[in-house]
## 1
Amino acid sequence: MTATLTPSPVANTLSSQPPAIRADALTRVVPLGDRQLTILEGVSLDVAAGETLAIVGASGSGKTTLLGLLAGLDRPNSGSVAWHGEAVSSLTEDALAKRRQGAIGFVFQSFQLLPALTALENVMLPLELAGARDAEKRAADWLARVGLGERVDHLPKQLSGGEQQRVAIARAFVADPKIVFADEPTGNLDTDTGAEIVELMFSLNREQGTTLVLVTHDPELAARCGHVVRLARGKVVS
Amino acid sequence: MNLVLRFVRRELRSTEARILVLALAVAVASVGAVAMFADRVKGAFANQANVLLGADAMISGDRPLPETFAQTAAAMGLKVTESSRFGSMISAAARDAASATARQSVLADVKAVAAPYPLRGTLEARDARGERVPLVAQVKPGEVFVDERLASRLGVKAGDVLEVGKNTPRIAQVFAEEPEVAGNFLSAAPKVLMSSADVAASELLGPGSRATYRLQVAGERAQEFAAAIKPKLGPGQRLETIRELRPEVRSTLERSEQFLGLAASFAVFLAVVAIVLALRRYLKRELDTATLFRTLGAGQRQTLMHFVGQFFVLALIACVLGVLLAFAAQAALAWAVRGLFASALPAAGWLPLAKAFATGLVLLLGFAIPPLVALAATPPVRALRRDMPTVGSGGVLAAVLGAVAVLAVVLMQSQDWQTGAIFVGGLVALVGVATLLAALLLWCIRRLVRSGRMARLGGPQSWAYGLANLDRRRLSTALQIACLGLGVMTLITVGFVRTDLFSAWQKSLPPDAPNRFLINIQQDQIETIQSLVPKTANGKPVAVYPMVRGRLVAVNGKTVTAKDFPDERAKRLVDREFNLSASASLPPANKIIAGDYYGTNDRGVMSIEEGIATTLNLKLEDRVTFDVAGEQVEVRITSLRKVDWDSFRVNFFALIPEATLAPLPKSYITAFHLPERDTQTLASVVNAAPNVLAIDVSEMMARVRSIVDQVARALEFVFAFTLLAGLLTLYTAVIATQDERRYDTALIRTLGGTRSQIRSSLIAEFTTLGGAAGLLGVAGSVVLTWALASRILKIDFIASPTVWIVGFALATGLTLLAGWLGTRSVLTTPPIQVLREG
């Protein structure tokens, strides 16, 4: 089933512009022993620039797989993905990586901070990989924005879960991405901390005008998004 | 680059990175120490070549040189000097007849020279403050220069009178050093310089006397002279120039460097095991970094370059650390063998440093590159799928590249691909056998635990748990035991050789074995000598054997020269003169193994020692021609003999019938046992026959013992790296299991296990591991030393419980320490933290 999302006012105004993300008949099959397992089948959707999309579904429904395909981290067996009109699923691995540099941000459930680097160094990483010269200043600014201006030299093990996720959020936004993907961003946090993180993410998203796509089990978080796609057994159900 | 350096700075806080750096540093240090030491020794020759020669070129021979050589040199405008060199007993002139029999005589290295001497370099004396100053005076007829050692041993000084053969020269100078000292680093005889004009009157050189005759030249055209003279050299004549100084010593040095280099390779081999183990854990940890890099937009190439850069920096740090360690180690090596060299060694050049650096870079990058390539290809989707299979270690390519890296280092050390290949093969086989033995040991332990005997013996259950841990990681445990055991084995063996084995060999000699040899006895002196020296056990005068010096010049009618033999020993035998003797009956300590010993009526035949025959490719019925003082003597080999050289009797490689020997110019030799407290006999002999040389076997054995001792110490230093590498391997293997241990310990503690019980199980585990390694090391050492004693030295095997206990305790103690350091965190980490991390 194809998800056709209700165009947002922003999307209406910019309807002549291609969607931030377009997925067309995505299918993902993985080998499991001597048989094949279809994780996603024929998923299509458009996400307009600046929209927030939640992908929801039960465990094993294919949410994370879909996120991976939309983010260019994985390749579909068939179908295509395009960002702002540019097809990305047919690019080589290195070309895809290049497209992600500075254009895509990620927030993970397990934060994925490098334990040997300080908070500042973790946030600097995307900029340094892209060869930016003012990485340190920009990273420091972003840490201040997420409320960790005084924790720049702390290692992840010296930060609480919520603080680590703030660092991860700063890292996701520091390169001014057009799209941010989040995989269960509050999954490892308690309710109160999770709420703070959600609030921070959405406010930054509004300020930066990024397109936000997130996977979540949390119905309240999903409700905050402009659009919701529900998956069941690898297919869009609503 | 900033990113790489930042990562390296952070990574150096991790145990895996530190182990990688340390293991590599050990490998670099062991290679670098040997390379630097060898370079210093070679530098002592290369840098001082012309001073060591005392000239720009030198011709030497065991007979007086043709006059045409000196004439040719003079015609080329070169400075020329001729000299001869021989051994002689020297004593202080006696004041009266009574003191004549009580004074000491010293065997000295005498050089009879003609001015100007030396042509290059100078003698050095000491001024009033004891500082060395050049000595420019020339020795004149009627006087001698002696070195400080001779002056000290005889208790004489400048102005005193010596007895040199029949001469009584005055000591004109005492010198500290003269050219050629450093080149002759194994010679410990004190030195005397006399005038060539005094040799005839001294009557020191008679028929059959052993002397070296030399012509030294210096000047611009010296190399031209050398090239012109070289084709004209006859048998027994050698040419040495600055460029080709002492080829036999150079060859010995190269062999020694090769041996030490291979010994150091042992440490490299073990260090590589530690590197591989640490690398696996390091790369597993870096998987998250690689995943994140790929997610954040770094391509495969960028990711690979980052990690390669990281490892390059780590390798550089390890190389610097290793080189610093190598500096210290080679200084210790040089100190350990300082007695072998007469002067200080020069500093090492840059090539050994380059060699050490190359070792570090080749090893780490050789092992790291393939798995890094695999790491850089980590699919970015792993950021979402943490349960994806981990990156491979590079597969077959990694193993091949790693093996090539190790082989490259070993080949660099051995300087010869065949030796290197044999060494690697032997080492792999040795580690394989040791691992199998270790596995067998573990099987016994397993049986002990499972049978419940441990509990019946009163051991706590925690011990059984500790031993079961060893069993759970069988291959890793067996490898650890093997590596550590080999390190212990090498150290115990070398230590044993240095201490007990040599002493045991000395003690195996009969108490009345001859300890004094008299050579250069003339025919008319035989009766006098026999009357002066102690009689044999059955009251008879000591046997005196004739000795004729002859050079091998033809075999089966075909002329032979040193060039015809590839073997170095064969070349030396052909280049120098044989000592031929005669004995009517087969001498004691000799056994015929082929043919028949000649009878009293036989002529023109020879009995030859089996080892020499093999070296020179001689067999029964071969006709051998010797040149004896210009006369050709042909003999036919009719028997091969086996000689017991350990009997310390007078023995000869070649025996010919008395009738064949009789007309030839000869001297005589004898050997006898002199009680240590007897100081008069030798003085009497020297008085009666000043041309006779007395060789003190005890003194020579002490010198050999000292050399063996110093060489063994040097080996101990090199093998210490092996032990260090073995310990690092153990530590790394323990660290590799740390996560698993932490989880197990957390579970046990959650289920009620106490820290004391866990501590007890760890102690049991590592004590058993170390004990097994110690047992393997001691057992291996026993086998090695038994083989050395029974097969090579032919003595009874001597048990050395002290060395075994020390070796066993060392292995156990060090293993316990390394194991404890690697696992103590499992006791201090709160269980809840571990269980949350999952």
## 2
Amino acid sequence: MTGRSEAEVRLALRDWVRTHATVEVPETFDDHTSLIPTRYLTSLQIADLLLYVEELRGKSLDVASLRPGVFRDIDTVYATFLADGE
Amino acid sequence: MTGLDSLAATPGLTWADTGQATLAGPLLELAERLDRRFVTLARRWRAVELRFPPCIAAADLERIDYFRSFPHLATFPVCLDPDDDNLARFAAGDPVTAGGRVALSDLAPVEAVLTPAACYHLYAHFKGASFEAPAYFTTRATCFRRETHYRPLERQWSFTMREIVFLGTAAETQGFLDEATYDVDALAAELGLPLAWAPASDPFFRPSRNPQYLMQQVHPTKHELLFDDRLAIASTNLHHDHFGRAFDLSRTDGSIGEPHPVHSACVAFGIERWLAAIVHQVGFDPVRWPEVGS
């Protein structure tokens, strides 16, 4: 990780989604808001988010090891890839 | 289970090493009965039937980035350049070599592809259309997918695909897939086939670099009905608004406010693979093959 706190990383992820979403993200958007069925993120944005997560954690991800649901919401992204020890 | 290694000896099947099958007699009748059974499923939704030509415009497939995702599967229909000298040059030589290869002279520009999936035609057909209510369609096509190897009835260059396609809102698509899955399960039980659903991804070219493959990994939208845990004989596919956006299909139902890109889903049946599953399950004797309706 890049020395940021958990709160800072979560905020960075939310900002990233707001900036890159294909449709307008509502005020109620939070770490538990679904990212894909809502179409905030489509396949192109998921590929870019993957790169952004790699940048945040400072190391690459093995695409083949990705499991269903890991990009469900910000909370899951953080817990899967960016929490301590990940 | 019969433990058959190859289905080449199935009565009514003539297999060509090009990866193509000729069906006749009871095997052809079984294929037709299966297709009618799938059409019966489609009637649950009063699906409108459409029959499309064997080629689809390359420009339409470009809208969905087909050629970057599946270049290895594409089969192109080619024609000779109509220039008279070019045609004369082709006709004057040996048009087909001893090895069976066509000695082509200059080619005309290629602007079409032999259908790789039945439902693609449908989105192209309705390009720019607005829908005011959920819409259901069904179509059958001979599909072409170039592969590295072929097996009779299981993996063919050309094969028959029946699809039921739904166009609607995001919420409605899941309802359609739930109903379709339930109905296909009932059909599988009726036929006594050992089948199970499993998440799957499409066979993308260089998948690790393809955003759509990545999406299918983290948010499965394709589920295959596997016979013997290996042979996919049907699939359900949730497209979200992928085709709706690519082909400018919109939904204008007042209950959802402003027009939105159509969301779509489909259920697809590989008819030759259903034949393969049945023959594997009960053997070569047509007397033992199921009735599958009338």
## 3
Amino acid sequence: MFSYVVRRLIATIPVMAIVAGFVFSLLYFAPGDPAAIIAGDLATAQDIARIHHQLGLDEPFLVRFWQWAWGVLRGDLGISIFTNLPVWQLIQQRLEPTAALTVTTLIVSIVVAIPIGVLAAWRAGTWIDRAAMAFAVLGFSVPSFVLAYILILVFSVELDWLPVQGYVSIREGFWPFLQHLILPSTALGLIYAALIARITRTSMLEVLSQDYIRTAHAKGLSSRNVLVGHALKNAAVPIATIIGIGVALLIGGVIATETVFAIPGIGRLTVDAILRRDYPIIQGVILLFSAAYVILNLLIDLSYTVLDPRVRY
Amino acid sequence: MGRIRRLAWRGIVAAALAATLPPAGAHAQSSGKTLSFIPEADLKSLDPIWTTAYITRNYGYMVYDTLFALDEHFKVQPQMAEKWTVSEDNLVYTITLRDGLKWHDGAPVRPEDCIASLERWMKRDVLGQTLPGVIGEMKAVDDRTFSITLKKPFPLLLDAVGKLSSNVPFMMPERVAKTDANTQIKESIGSGPFKFAASEWVPGAKAVFVKNADYVPRKEPPSWAAGGKVVKVDRVEWLYIPDPQTAANALNAGEVDWWQQLPQDLVAMLAKNKDVTVANVDPLGSVGVLRFNHEQPPFDNPKMRQAVEWVIDQKEMMTALAGDQKYWKTCYSYFSCGTPLANDAANAPLAGKRDVEKARALVKEAGYAGQKVVVMTATDQPIVNAQALVAMEALKKIGVDAELAAMDWGTLITRRASHDPVDKGGWNIFFTWFVAPDMANPALNAALRGNGASAWFGWPKDAKIEELRDQWFAAPDLAAQKKVAEAIQTEAFESVPYVPTGMFQIPTAYRSNLKGVIVAPVVFLWNVEKS
């Protein structure tokens, strides 16, 4: 398995190189000039041209790409055009909130979805199943930002239980940290919960019809033991896959959620950078995202070996 | 027995959990020593000389101080300066700094710092750029005094050095001010009433300022940028909340103290909260602008520009843009209404009855051949977009084949630099807005200039306006300045460099326990206290 992991990690290099080249080209040809934004509304064309030159934006495409790529190879993602701060520093500032939001969202999704999915499969065709699937449809249908506003209105504005916005680091206390993540992770998590619940139900239904489940029941095992110990374990591979896909989707989902809850995460950093054409940030963040996707896929593949003993690399 | 034990355990866990949780409502309320403020935009750059962005100007007023500053009577008052004298021939200004001025790193403020700061500012600012042609020499006289020797009398010298809006001539330490004017500075060392907490800066989210304990405010009461800058909180946190609904909720819940600019559609909601005050704290407001491309047909023809003047209805524009009339007014002048040079000269094309027939006649006279007109709008800027949508209707009324090109602001301000014809990515009309102080006189009003290719986007060519502008600089007093301003406006209504679309105010909202909010065209955070 070690050689498999190494091979997969080596395979990430060309993938990320292609992503890097694609993103750089896309930004190069996209409309909008950071020099014009920096110069401000009162600037003249001459001011903009001067800043454009100073930022090296008038260099040929290949020269700019090589300068950036050479920096990346040395671990230097560049300097933000606007804030003059290193891109890596800006990403580091934003990693913790996004990671915290992603993890809590995953916890919310899994804790809600798997019991619902299992229960729906166990009681397939009953009102429990129908209610669970209605929840799934609702979860898919309501955009996370709409749910976010509803949650804020109820729990922050009306009940005054939880804060409207912001993020507090876990270093400043676990409760303030959690308090600021409950609403965002619920708003974002319910969509993924719906997705995971559906897959869990389908996968469980398939497993529950297997002979070994009937045998387990015949041997007098309790329903709980059969469901959790046998059925869920064997239904876990598709569920793990969808959880992995969910994490990848989450990276997109956090952008809206971070905006609504004013969480200073990677999502907002990306949107802000796109709006003001801060190329080094956009390139750095997308490179980071692509690395995260690749590593995530690898972890999902590796998880199969744990969940299904038949899988070997 | 087992059941009882389970219940007991559940009770213990529940009690322990409850003990760790604070009571409801005890979260994130803004503390009495910290002013939580939602600014108009995200603070991106820390160099108020390098960029004209208003958010960086506002940051500059927190961290830096100025030699002179404008007060609410449009008078320039000394700020860092203790006194100044002017020689009899009006050629030598001698300025003495207040005693005990210190930079945030503890070093004393020296005349050399001020000279270097002025030199850097003069390379960037639209008004400052006129000074190298006037100033012969700046030199330190002693530890607190320096002189500015002019080549010829320039009555507006102190007005320039006391400029209210971007770029404000903020004073910086000499080593910082020696930075190339086109390169961002890397330090935040000023001598202003607040110190910037650089380690806490999270661009796109938070900027923190702490009270400068060494700052010695002037004794006079605050008046716009002039007077005593007395800081009454320990800390100011700028929290950038991009989503307006979230900002409104945060203010309603008391998580923030002040939201600088709220959109019109949330005014009514916030006004219902008795703990929130919705107010206008900008006495002048801002000016909407419809800008033509003077290089491209059909608006290279003044008759076409005049035609648009006759159909633009400021009331319609401002209603679409600002809603309630409490927040807008018409202003038929090329100089911001409410400022000394605003006047009514020759303003009938904009102030008179809207006359579609006359406008159509002008279009015909111009020989308009029915070519496509590209009107650029930025859909992420409601102020810009509202003006564009109203103008489209007006253009259609006079038979112009107008096409609305929707884009984001970042794209618009890039495309507006294009000199190309519309079929090659050029443009004919775009919209923007400026704060009133930036349109208050011929020196500051960049859109009014007629210096062709060197002019602001749209590149009007009007030698008469340029000549009158030079006369204005030489005008010895306000009466003379007003006379020249009227002549400039008369010419502007003929050549139409742009169409003023009205004046509006963006309301602000703050918790009712805030006291001492300064009413001024720029947001100032000194003098504010939380009761």
